[in-house]
Amino acid sequence: GAVVSQHPSWVICKSGTSVKIECRSLDFQATTMFWYRQFPKQSLMLMATSNEGSKATYEQGVEKDKFLINHASLTLSTLTVTSAHPEDSSFYICSASSRAFDNEQFFGPGTRLTVL
Amino acid sequence: AQSVAQPEDQVNVAEGNPLTVKCTYSVSGNPYLFWYVQYPNRGLQFLLKYITGDNLVKGSYGFEAEFNKSQTSFHLKKPSALVSDSALYFCAVRDMGSYQKVTFGTGTKLQVIP
């Protein structure tokens, strides 16, 4: 149990386009979902925390208008990178948690975004 | 504020030898502590966690970790390393009183040499 999926697993796009990444909790209802960004050979940086049905809480320094997060249901959250630029190229990882699992975070497999 | 330190960027160990990956933490309250492993271009895989109880926690793939409150440490150990254990390991902490926010260490690359 407690499986989290992400789609797509990798994406290549042109500069200026928008990219949407989906995060799904497959076998549980996630009250909270988290989005992380990981640069090569670095740790995970929390970008934002989202609760179903409410606005995401962004970490300091993360542009809300750049990284749009929607948490429309208890099993789905999306991250849209708007007007992507090469510096947005990174590995994006989501996680999901539930009070049923003592709020432990379960991580998705990640999405590799490359902006040309 | 909570923080995690992984003092070693890389640990090299010969196959069959015991391994230790170090982690120290700082929280204001009681900690939840975690170890995760990451293979190239993959997400994080959960290895083990400490919440309360026994200071020695056993996890997946033969890994274990020892919680030491006085030294604020949570080192990851395995009695006999495998080449397939080569990966990036992250220690993480959550303050029991905090709203779920987990802080990750910078990661330690484990290289098991055949």
Which terms would index this structure?
heterodimer, A: 116 residues, mainly beta, seven-stranded mixed β-sheet, four-stranded antiparallel β-sheet, 11 strands, globular, B: 114 residues, six-stranded mixed β-sheet, 53% strand
Q: How would you describe this structure to a colleague?
A:
The complex is a heterodimer of chains A (116) and B (114). Chain A is globular, with a radius of gyration of 13 Å. Helix content of chain A is 0%, strand content 52%. Chain A has no helices and eleven strands. Chain A has 116 residues and is mostly beta strands. The mean pLDDT of chain A is 91. In chain B, a hairpin with a 7-residue loop joins strand 10 and strand 11 (103-104). Chain B has no helices and twelve strands. In chain B, the strands form three sheets. In chain B, strands 2, 5, 6, 10, 11 and 12 form a six-stranded mixed beta sheet that branches. In chain B, strands 3-9-8-7 form a four-stranded antiparallel beta sheet, with no helix packed on it. Chain B starts with a strand and ends with a strand. The interface between A and B is medium-sized, with 22 and 17 residues.
Give the uncertain stretches of chain A in residue-range form: none
Structural class designation of chain A: mainly beta
Oligomer: heterodimer
Q: Kindly state the mean pLDDT of chain A as a whole number?
A: 91
Instruction: Please outline the major beta sheet of chain A.
Output: 7 strands, mixed
Count of DSSP strands of chain B = 12
Q: Can you write the helix and strand succession of chain B as a string?
A: EEEEEEEEEEEE
